[in-house]
Write a structure and sequence with these properties.
The complex is a heterodimer. Chain A is mainly alpha-helical. Helices cover 74% and strands 0% of the residues of chain A. Chain B has a five-stranded mixed β-sheet, with helices on both faces. A four-stranded parallel β-sheet of chain B has the order 7-6-11-12, with helices on one face. The two termini of chain B are 23 Å apart. The mean pLDDT of chain B is 90. The chains are: A mainly alpha, B alpha+beta.
């Protein structure tokens, strides 16, 4: 497979996964903003998905409708849904003859849906949850189409590596942001709606209820999001999948690079697998998450160097 | 047959050959079934079909992007739902004519890049060749596989008022539009269910198969599975959709210049498992951008060193480099002489009479009759930089004359040929609009094959004679009857 094609698969998939995470986050946060007597703050969401250094974000004044507009259809926000779907589609366009026609049409439809001026209008005037649901459905269609139509080859391995790398980074970022807000404001530690919304935005609420009986405890949430291999958005589940799909890239001509990256991913996997809530607490959550994040980034860099010929 | 409302309100243009409207105010036989079919549909139904066609083009991403105030706006190439129909006998004539013309043009290229007999025998003047920017000295005595230069061509045909076919242009470099021939047919299948088999329309789906077979035969390495690639300038090229369609239909790799690298006069592509040698390149990048070491040094689209690999015979390039000298508009005037010279045959397809403005006598004549002339740049394309004498103002004509006098070699003039008209569906009515025809000919080691069909371009503006998509043109499905 051409290096450029592999890179496009990887980025296509990362962008789509990012849009999925963002949309769910926005939906739950909006719902939560309707459900609180205290001042609701959008700051963590913006911090996770945009980065506060973006000056535009400062002018949003914590107003839900302006935040949604900025995050979904904002043209000046490089990480808005509109802009990342445009990038996803350009990557797909560059590998059009490698993806199925169904998948291309599906992405096209997602793009045209986001681009439709009615979406922006509805986001301002109508029920935003309805709008976000329409977009979330587009992502689900995408994943369904990939599952049903895409050939189980090298391309799909790169797609899955991209998808799970993006997901792991997102889960780490979300945890880091949410827990650092707690250390600034210890009252949140006992605020059940705070933790409930965190779980809802990751889609892990139902699993949590089934696993833990004693209500919303920060440590249990940490355990589920980092260490529970049955939770599809946990860090360990994502890293296991990176490892799984990376394994499939092994072949006779790339033994050295394969061995090097395999070592790197294996080390990361063990680092998480042989941690416990207690050991993480001992070494400090923020330090632990920062280390994991850096390791995930360096997996991305190695792919760039060894497989995408971008060194 | 009882004539339908759609036909009754149809007014053909005076003095223009109408593809549907016969001499005795009757529908020509080959259009009967289509007219009968659409007569059963209300204007509402047809509008719905038009909408369906648009949404099919849109959802399949068959679009080109127009950049306006920094924002890309996607547009579809306008499509008219009424097919353009060509009878079996018309097609047989066209097919024969194109094969003859293409054979001669290919012999001309071989000759001009080797011994230049045609120049030595005084048939084609040497200054016309050497002043042509597409004549590339780098091709001199370079041996190409099977002596084939023009593997893919799209010769543009038009019909004058009595229906005679003329060749308007020979497109021998990287003719585009064939994906529209294929996609338009797919859309028509959806718009008019069952109508195609009823009318006995010949299939166009063989095109990618034949092209692939020809590419495969060119591989310099005698191995069972040579690497064939389609070289595209990338996703921002207006024909990118076509590149992906062809790559997909042939199952070949679509590459960009940055995916390729030359080492030791061999071309390789960069893959996730290392370098892989490339044998055949169907390139959609112009000569000028192909190799920054030999041609335009600024080019980011090409591959450094590819010309060396080509000269060594380590890679086949389709179409061959330097074919532009044969479709230059000044050389065009000599094509009938070439056919007589190389084949000892009379040309089957007519040339539009062409005046070289480099020649003072002819220039004099043209300047006197500019109102009835079309003046074109010899290396222009896409309908840009043309002067349509019958529609231009005094001021425009004077300005254009000054432009011509700066470098007369760069201009030719032709009498205004009134293109034939075909019915188009416009807001509930059928209206005549001017059309041309571009069949695609594939030249392989087994000879020339022409898929029965082609691209019919149509000037959608009332009264317009310019069919180029950049100038408000659209396209139609083109039916060749069995």
């Amino acid at each position: 497979m051409l290096s450029r094609v592999a890179a496009s698969f990887y980025w296509l998939s990362r962008y789509i996964e990012r849009s999925d995470g963002m949309l769910r986050m926005l939906k739950i946060n909006y719902a939560s903003s309707q459900d609180t007597v205290q001042e609701f703050t959008w700051e963590p969401v913006i911090r996770i998905f945009v980065g506060l250094h973006e000056t535009d974000a400062d002018t949003l004044d914590n107003d839900s409708r302006s935040v949604l507009k900025y995050m979904v259809t904002g043209k000046n926000n490089p990480n808005s849904i509109l802009n990342i779907i445009t990038l996803a589609r350009e990557n797909a366009r560059g590998v059009q003859e490698h993806i199925t026609k169904d998948l291309w049409q599906c992405l096209n439809e997602y793009y045209h849906t986001v681009k439709d001026p009615r979406i922006e209008r509805a986001l301002q005037r109508e029920d935003p949850i309805g709008v976000l649901d329409v977009l979330i459905k587009q992502v689900m269609l995408y994943y369904g189409t990939v599952e049903i139509t895409m050939e189980r080859g090298e391309g799909r391995s790169f797609m899955n590596i991209g998808k799970y790398l993006e997901r792991a980074i997102q889960s780490v970022d979300i945890l880091d942001t949410k827990f650092s807000s707690v250390s600034d404001n210890p009252n949140l530690l006992t605020d059940t709606t705070y933790w409930k919304h965190l779980l809802l935005s990751l889609g892990g609420y139902e699993l949590y209820l089934k696993t833990y009986r004693e209500g919303f405890e920060a440590e249990n949430i940490l355990e589920q999001v980092v260490l529970n291999n049955d939770f599809p958005r946990s860090v360990i589940y994502s890293v296991n999948n990176i490892q799984r799909y990376f394994d499939r890239l092994k072949n006779d001509t790339n033994v050295d690079t394969y061995r090097e990256m395999s070592f790197q991913i294996g080390r990361l996997q063990s680092r998480i697998k042989y941690s416990s809530v207690r050991s993480i607490r001992q070494e400090g959550l923020h330090g632990f998450l920062t280390q994991i994040r850096n390791e995930l980034y360096s997996v991305g860099n190695s792919l760039n160097e060894y497989y995408f010929a971008n060194s | 047959m009882k004539e339908s409302a759609y036909f009754n309100q149809y007014t053909p243009i005076n003095g223009v050959w109408d593809e549907m409207y016969g001499t005795n105010c009757n529908v020509r036989d080959h259009y009967l079934k289509v007219i009968e079919y659409i007569s059963k549909e209300s204007a509402d139904d047809l509008n719905k079909k038009e909408e369906l066609a648009k949404s099919l083009f849109m959802s399949q991403g068959i679009t080109f992007t127009v950049y306006n105030s920094g924002e890309g706006i996607e547009k579809i190439f306008p499509f008219d739902i009424i097919p353009r129909i060509i009878t079996a006998s018309e097609w047989a004539f066209v097919e024969k004519g194109i094969k003859q013309r293409l054979t001669a043009l290919n012999l001309f290229l071989k000759d001009i890049y080797n011994n230049q007999f045609i120049v030595k025998d005084g048939i084609v003047p040497i200054d016309i060749i050497y002043s042509c920017p597409h004549f590339l000295r780098e091709m001199y005595q370079l041996k190409v596989p099977y002596d084939i230069y023009v593997h893919i061509s799209g010769i543009d045909l038009i019909r004058d008022e009595d229906g005679t076919f003329y060749v308007l242009e020979d497109n021998l470099r990287t003719p585009s539009g064939v994906s529209y021939m294929l996609e338009n047919r797919e859309i028509t299948k959806r718009l008019f269910p069952d109508l195609l088999p009823q009318c006995g329309v010949r299939s166009v789906t063989e095109y990618p198969t034949i092209l692939y077979k020809n590419l495969l035969a060119l591989s310099p390495r005698q191995i069972s599975n040579p690497t064939i690639v389609l070289l595209s300038p990338g996703i921002y090229n207006s024909a990118y959709f076509e590149h992906t369609t062809l790559a997909r239909l042939m199952g070949v790799e679509l590459v960009e210049g940055r995916d390729l690298v030359v080492n030791n006069h061999k071309v390789y592509m960069k893959t996730t498992t290392g370098l892989q040698q490339v044998d055949v390149i169907y390139r959609r990048v112009d000569d000028e951008y192909l190799d920054p070491l030999v041609f335009n040094p600024e080019s980011m689209l090409g591959v450094a060193g590819i010309m060396g690999a080509y000269r060594k015979g380590n890679v086949a390039i389709v179409n061959a480099i330097g074919t532009g000298v044969a479709d230059d508009k000044a050389v065009y005037a000599y094509v009938p002489d070439m056919i007589r010279y190389y084949l000892n045959e009379e040309p089957i397809l007519k040339n539009v009479p062409t005046h070289q403005l480099g020649n003072p006598d002819e220039r004099e004549h043209v300047f006197k009759n500019l109102n009835n002339m079309v003046v074109k740049k010899t290396n222009g394309s896409g309908g840009y930089g043309m002067l349509m004498g019958h529609a231009a103002s005094e001021q425009e004509i004077d300005d254009y004359k000054k432009e011509i006098l700066k470098d007369p070699r760069n201009f030719i003039a032709q009498p205004t040929i009134s293109l034939s008209a075909a019915p188009c569906y416009m807001q509930g009515l059928l209206k005549p609009r001017r059309v041309d025809l571009r069949p695609y000919a594939l030249y392989g080691p087994d000879g020339i094959e022409i898929v029965p069909g082609g691209l019919t371009r149509v000037a959608l503006k009332e009264g317009s004679l310019v069919v180029n998509s950049s100038q408000g043109g659209g396209s139609k499905d083109t039916w060749v009857l069995a």
